[in-house]
Write a structure and sequence with these properties.
This protein is of the alpha/beta class. The protein contains 15 helices and 15 strands. It has a 7-stranded mixed sheet, sandwiched between helices. A hairpin with a 2-residue loop joins β2 (43-46) and β3. Mean pLDDT is 94; it is low at 408-412.
Length: 412
């Protein structure tokens, strides 16, 4: 059989990629990776340069904790390095089983299911819960994994304006679907604001809907002993609702890797049976589960980490309010470890990032499509590993750059 080929006169669509990459450059939207190595505290070696980093989601400073490293090594000695099979074959180790029980207890819900990654969790559990003929109600600023999970489900998607509960109420009222699923970040990853979880739950109660909360940026940080957004609002333990499905990642404040979903026994059992990203993927290695056992203990008992982090948040916000009062740059209203500084244009955000890099500070510039057009920003991520001196250094540098770049400061 002859194999057809493009004629010399017919350009292949594969030839378009260099021009498409160049278009990214023209729009200041091309991303690049950096090669990093951890140093002491909140410092990273970035492409060979030692830098003070404000980019990590390691909110409690646990990612390089000696106790976690020791636990991971012990887990590797006991269980080996890889799980070697999916959880429903032979990949579900005794360490993973024990971790699921510990996670459920920690967040005050009946059952938990441990996944190898947060993105895989949400893109898998949403299609397992709803499908064609059902309805999903999604906050406009939800993380990409929630958005992609909703699309994969083939349910009808209703996108409501960020935190607009009146719009959500109306959409729920008008929907004829029998099965309704409301999905929302708990702490929004680019703005740092907190969803009104009690109000969301009240709407779900009123409209017979299920509420899926992604607490990736709240677990370990919010609530008593870092037990997450449900504990923060008093909605865990005896006050837990069967209408809530709680998801959180374990590679941020917990400092390791993976994710979990927790809820009623029936919901979690259904997800175990029907979530394709759980059933058809190799299980998370047991050595990570071993490290996470230790991480949970540190999260629970090291209250000083959250107290210190909150002090740093207050110090940063006060400092920037003073230094940027005459600047067009806008600091978001976040009270969490995620502090967005809105710059506006893509090129300007990159220029400010570069100005900080020249001063030995690494703060990432976040641009569309991660955030809406015209809202490019610096995403300042704080950690308990930072010191007050680190915060003061960043505030001073941003103040200097704001003055130097004042003529170019304009949102839009």
């Amino acid at each position: 059989m002859a194999i057809s080929t493009c004629s010399p006169q017919t350009a292949s669509w594969l030839d378009e990629f260099p021009a498409r990459i160049a278009a990214l450059d023209d729009s200041h939207l091309r991303r690049r990776r950096r090669v990093v190595r951890p140093e002491n505290g909140a410092r990273l070696q970035v492409d060979g340069q030692s830098m003070l980093a404000f980019c990590s989601n390691d909110y409690l400073g646990l990612a390089n904790h000696p106790a976690l490293i020791e636990a991971a090594c012990a887990g590797a000695q006991q269980f080996g390095v890889g799980a070697a099979a999916s959880p429903l074959v032979s990949g579900h180790s005794a360490a993973n089983e024990a971790l699921e029980h510990a996670l459920a207890t920690f967040v005050g819900l009946p059952s938990a299911l441990y996944f190898y990654a947060g993105y895989a969790t949400n893109i898998g559990i949403i299609p397992a819960l709803v499908g064609q003929g059902d309805a999903i109600f999604s906050d406009a600023l939800n993380h990409a994994c929630l958005i992609d999970g909703a699309r994969l489900s083939r349910a009808q998607i209703h996108r409501y304006a960020h935190a607009d509960l009146a719009a959500l109420d109306e959409a729920l009222t008008l929907s004829p679907a029998r099965r309704k699923l409301v999905i929302s970040d708990a702490v929004f990853s680019m703005d740092g604001d907190l969803a009104d979880v009690p109000a969301l739950l009240a709407l779900c109660e009123r409209h017979d809907a299920l509420l899926l909360l992604d607490d990736a940026h709240g677990f370990g940080v919010l609530g008593p002993q870092g037990r997450g957004c449900l504990a923060h609002f008093g909605l865990s333990g005896a006050n837990a609702s069967p209408r809530v499905l709680y998801m959180a990642t374990l590679g941020k404040a917990a400092g390791v890797a993976g994710a979990f979903v927790a809820g009623s026994d029936a919901l979690v059992e259904w997800l175990l049976q029907k979530t394709r990203s759980y059933i058809f993927a190799t299980a998370a290695p047991a050595l990570l589960a071993s490290a996470l056992h230790t991480s949970l203990q540190l999260i629970e008992h090291d209250e000083w980490r959250r107290a210190h982090l909150n002090q740093l948040i207050t110090r940063l916000r006060r400092g920037l309010a003073e230094r940027l009062q005459d600047s067009a740059w806008q600091l978001g209203a976040s009270l969490t470890a995620i502090q967005p500084l809105l710059i506006g244009r893509n090129d300007e955000a990159l220029a400010v990032m570069e100005g900080l890099r020249e001063r030995g500070l690494w703060v990432p510039a976040i641009r569309p499509p991660t955030v809406p057009d015209g809202t490019a920003r610096l995403r300042i991520a704080l950690s308990a590993a930072h010191t007050e001196a680190d915060i003061d250094e960043l505030v001073q540098a941003l103040g200097e750059l704001a003055v130097a770049r004042q003529p170019a400061d304009a949102l839009g």
